[in-house]
Design a protein that fits this description.
Radius of gyration: 24 Å
Bound molecules: glutathione
Strand content: 15-25%
Distance between the termini: 40 Å
CATH architecture of one domain: Sandwich
Helix content: 25-40%
């Protein structure tokens, strides 16, 4: 509601901005940063909080606004700062100040909800954290930016914001009837069922790989979690994006899709051929390395637009296209003549795909991790959506603990003790999620390969620590 009022209030500004950008056909000249400030305890809006964005441009430039009665401040930053990191600081009387680094993206329009923690000594309002007691040193002083409390935000909001690809069959797709389906979509629902007891309480936010939009969205708090065919790498886990990764939901690898009429059956036969690849992905980085290693010369054609890349591939402007094998299999089903293309039997890299969320929020990390593990542990212990109600009376301790009949795992996580029961009842176990979206009864028909449970004896590597 507040956002609607806010849009009404700033409607003239946004209208002028949209008209200007539509007229000149270029990106808007400002980066709009809208921050809503609330109290973490009561979720009430805080008026007169000071929101400052400090940009370093040869000297320091401060963009500063106070929040209005809806707790909202709108800051318009000159587009010439696009590509830079800036420091966002929010302070309010009686609350601990919040600082975080943000990335400025050309023409971006960001809405961020920030909940401030009351100052330790809340009786005496005053800005900033309480200074450390030298007699009782606590080291290091917690950084308020690291204490975002995503779990509490999701519970207060009543819905989960989940970043997805948005148009990839099998993984995340908005259907004509307005419902979302897919493997990644189901894992968003798994987290919503765990946190809110309602698998439907999800807002899906399509995000691109272009300009690292998906990672900015996690960092800026636009999404609580990203489930978007994203590979966990050491670089991404440790770089300035401040991301954390959860359990791998899909063990993938890079592959090559070729035109059948080229009669190519081995990647090594692509000597001298053109290969379409998406810029800004792990795929692009792996391509040259892999072909260099096998001593084959190929020409990489990097694309910024994925749709264009597949259109050009189908028009045979390139001989092969490379991506995660799961994505190639999914894209193949959308092509005019799927049978005219052939997924080569080669795995050029390891691509462990899974959830991404903001770094240093340990409660949230635990919740996302154990929600996902619950689907794997359920398959391992043969608990599914069809037998879960009956198994509430099981004498198997593993099942009792999984379903919250015994132990206190849910409560320890800040959830209901039956969180896994709700996941399995509403969404299913890992096998059900896989088969529904990618299995042999679907057009994607991807063999499970390493994505089998470890205890099936077929080379599966999926495993959950015990409940
Ligand atoms: N798993 C890889 C690749 C992920 C990926 O999503 N790649 C491309 C397809 S080749 C894509 O879907 N791009 C769509 C887009 O964001 O426009 C990664 O995390 O970098």
């Amino acid at each position: 509601m507040e956002w609607i009022q806010q849009y009404a209030k700033y409607g003239w500004f946004i209208a002028v901005w949209l008209v200007l950008s539509a007229c000149n056909g270029t990106t808007p000249e400002t980066i709009l940063y809208q921050v809503q400030v609330q109290s973490q305890d009561s979720a009430e809006n805080i008026e007169n909080a000071q929101v400052t964005i400090e940009v370093n441009a040869g000297g320091t430039i401060n963009y500063s606004e106070s929040t209005d009665s809806n707790g909202v401040a709108v800051i318009a930053i000159d587009n010439r700062h696009a590509g830079q990191q800036a420091r966002l600081e929010v302070s309010a009387n009686g609350y601990q100040a919040h600082t975080q680094m943000i990335s400025l993206i050309e023409g971006d329009s960001v809405q961020q909800l920030l909940q401030l923690e009351p100052a330790a000594n809340s009786g005496t309002p005053g800005p900033g954290p309480t200074p450390p007691d030298p007699a009782n040193p606590v080291s290091p002083t917690p950084d308020p930016a690291n204490n975002a409390g995503i779990l509490q935000q999701v519970q207060t909001r009543g819905s989960l914001r989940c970043g997805v690809e948005g148009s990839l069959p099998g993984f995340s797709l908005l259907q004509d009837d307005g419902t979302w389906v897919g493997f990644d979509v189901d894992f968003c629902r798994v987290i919503a069922a765990a946190v809110l007891g309602d698998a439907q309480a999800v807002e899906f936010i399509p995000l691109s790989t272009a300009d690292d939009e998906r990672f900015h969205a996690v960092q800026d708090g636009r999404v609580d979690v990203l489930l978007r065919n994203t590979t966990w790498t050491a670089e991404r886990d440790t770089n300035a994006f401040e991301l954390d990764f959860g359990p791998t939901t899909f063990h993938d690898g890079q592959g090559l899709l070729v035109h059948r009429n080229l009669n190519i059956t081995l990647a090594e036969e692509l000597q001298g051929k053109r290969i379409c690849v998406r810029r800004g992905t792990t795929t692009e980085a792996n391509l040259q390395r892999w072909f260099d290693q096998v001593g084959v010369d190929v020409t990489a054609l990097p694309y910024d637009d994925t749709d264009q890349m597949y259109t050009d591939y189908e028009a045979q402007l390139c001989d092969a296209v490379t991506s995660d094998r799961s994505q190639l299999a999914a894209q193949q089903t959308t092509m005019a003549q799927p049978q005219d293309h052939f997924l080569l039997d080669v795995v050029m890299s390891r691509e462990p795909l899974g959830p991404v969320f903001r770094e240093n929020d340990n409660d949230w990390r635990d919740v996302v991790s154990w929600a996902i593990f619950a689907t794997m542990y359920a398959e391992e212990t043969h608990v599914s959506s069809t037998n879960v109600e009956r198994l509430l009376t099981s004498s198997d301790t593993r099942i009792k603990r999984l379903l919250g009949v015994e132990g206190n795992i849910g409560a320890n996580l800040g959830l209901d003790n039956n969180f896994a029961f709700e996941i399995i009842r509403q969404v299913g176990n890992y096998e059900e999620i896989y088969n529904r979206n990618l299995g042999s009864d679907t057009p994607i028909n991807l063999p499970r390969g390493p994505n089998r449970a470890w205890n099936t004896g077929q080379g599966g590597v999926l495993s959950s620590p015990p409940f």
